[in-house]
Hints:
Elements: E1 2-4, H1 9-20, E2 24-26, E3 29-34, E4 37-46, E5 52-55, H2 57-62, H3 67-89, E6 101-105, H4 113-123, E7 129-136, H5 139-145, E8 151-156, H6 176-202
Parallel strand pairs: 1-2, 1-6, 6-7, 7-8
Antiparallel strand pairs: 3-4, 4-5
Amino acid sequence: IILALPRGGVPVAAEVAQALKAPLDLIIVRKVGAPGNPELAVAAIVDGDPPDVVLNREIIEAYSLDDDELRVLIAKERPELQRRRLAYRGNCPPLSIAGKTAIIVDDGVATGTTMKVAIRALKRRSPLKLVVAIPVAPPDTLADLANEADCIVCLSQPAHFQALAYHYRSFPQLTDEEVKDALAEAAQRRSAVQLRVGRNAAKPRAV
C-alpha cells in the first residue's frame, strides 16, 4: 500500500502507486504546536481509526506541560485533522496496512520530523514492513530515519541541502481539490487494471 503525505507527497506517491500497481492512500499528520510557538511540535496527531497521538516528550518537559494542558492543545488541532480527512477522502475509511508492506511517500524530507511521526504511528498498525520512499533528503536526516523505518529509498542525497523547492524544476502548491482528484484518478486506474486482469483470467485457454 502506498501512503502519501499530503499535500506535496500526493503526486509523487501517485506515480509510485501506478508503477507498482498498488493502492494509494493518505497518511495525514497534524502538528500540535507548543504554547506561543506553534512551529515547535509538542505532539502530532496522525489520522486513522482511531487517530494516533505521538508525543514529543523532550518538548513537553521543556514547557512543563501537564496532562490537562496537553489534552487542550491536542483537542484544538483535531478539527483541522478532521477537515482535511473529509476534504481529501470524504467518508472513505483509511486502508488497513496490517500484515502488508506500507510505502510512505513524500516530495522530499528536510528535518524528517513529520516522516518520523508517520512511521511511529504506522508501526502501531501492525504492518509487515515500513518503507520510506522520497526523491530528495539530506544525508543526516536519512541516517536518522534509517533507525525508524525498515527500508529507505532516496534518489538524491545532497550534502548541501537547500529548501525543497530548489530541487524541483517546478514546485507548485497543491490545493485540497487537487489532492482529492489525484486520489480519485489513482483509484480509477487501479480499478481498470483489476478489471483487465479479471477479464484475462476469465478467458478460456486453448487446449
